[in-house]
Amino acid sequence: MGNLDEEKICLCALNMIFGYEPRIATALIDSLGSARAVFSLGKEDLGKILGAYPKYSGAINGRALEQAEKELEEAAREGIYFTGRGEAEYPELLMECEDAPAGIYIKGAAPEKSLAGKRDFVSIVGTRAVSEYGKEWCIRIVEALARSGSRPVIVSGLAYGTDITAHLAALENGLDTIAVMATGADMVYPSGHRQYAKAIAGKPGSALISDYPLHTGAIPLNFIRRNRIIAGLGKATILIESRLRGGGMITVRQAFSYDRDVYALPGRAGEPLSEGCNYLLRSGTAIPVISEKDLVESLGYVFRREDSDPGKEAACRYRKTMSGDKVEDIARILLIIKKKRGISLQEITEATGLPYSTVAEIAGLLENDGFIRTDLMQRCSIVRQRNQ
Predict the structure, then answer these.
(1) Is 210 helix (H, G, I), strand (E, B) or coil?
(2) How do beta strands 121-125 and 153-156 pair?
(3) Among 214, 208, 262, 217, which Cα is nearest to 235's?
(4) What confidence tens digit (pLDDT) does each residue in 30-52 have?
(5) Which terminus has fewer CB within 10 Å in the chain: N or C?
(6) Full-prediction pTM beyond 0.85?
(7) Is 144 exposed, middle or buried (0-12, 13-18, 19+ CB in 10 A)?
(8) Nearest-CA neighbor of 82 among 7, 157, 28?
(9) 235 vs 48, 141, 176, 196, 388, CA distance in Å?
């Protein structure tokens, strides 16, 4: 089997064989002690063990191991790391789940370390059609978690709406983030999030992960199935907004079944995007998100209030080298960005009445000095934790 670890190859093979019925792979590994032991069984013994699942007994053979070895070699060329059940890098909380995959593909700057160790993971999910209210609260929650001493890893699914809001808020606040894919780890869906996936994979401690083999495309069933991994990774799952039948509801129900804490953001009565959250709160399934402080402390972290006013900090920095009018313009622009995260340069121009060239110049200065960030669409946000 070349230079690859034999147990890892066997784990990869079992993951490919039992991808849609991982409980069987788990039962085999746990009862026989290793994945290698499964492939050491003869056809007759396999037939006895897999009597209720005869279609699988013929799949556990040398050809499966050859295919798995090729899969791992290709993954390595793509910068993707595979870890299987029982290995040191496989997350402990996920292994507690009876339907956890036999293995996970990890793509990141330091992939073997992205899920390892005693790290806290908090999952954040919700609708793709997130409202401004939901988006604002998602960002506020991540910012509060970033200010806590524990600084947990943020887990979500890279989808439109709530997912990508949570990932980007994590990156903006210096938190690690894990994107659980519904495709192979070598693919990105939606394609419009490729630049975000690249940013996640490029941050040490963050990663793209999937239990699907390479080249697996986006099919509806896989989006539903990957939700169990989002739920299984997190010590808690937070639902921002969801309709009664939304994907976020599936995730939080799975988290609840794993005996994990579930939180939901209350919404207005009759608001369709809040029906799922309000239902969970009414049924006692979820804990209400009343405030950032309440949530952070409920998770067992230390709540720390927001950093000092960036406008005052900038004024102190630039007062000696710039005119009073210029410093005032800088403070105004920072205040506008603080009040409306994601505001564009054009919107700032309209709000201040300043020439666009002046706004762009100031934004460039503030970004260079670490006060703000601007994304590919020229949307601005305040940088938190500047003193860390």
Answers:
(1) strand
(2) parallel
(3) 262
(4) 989 999 999 998 888 888 888 77
(5) C
(6) no
(7) buried
(8) 7
(9) 38, 16, 15, 24, 25
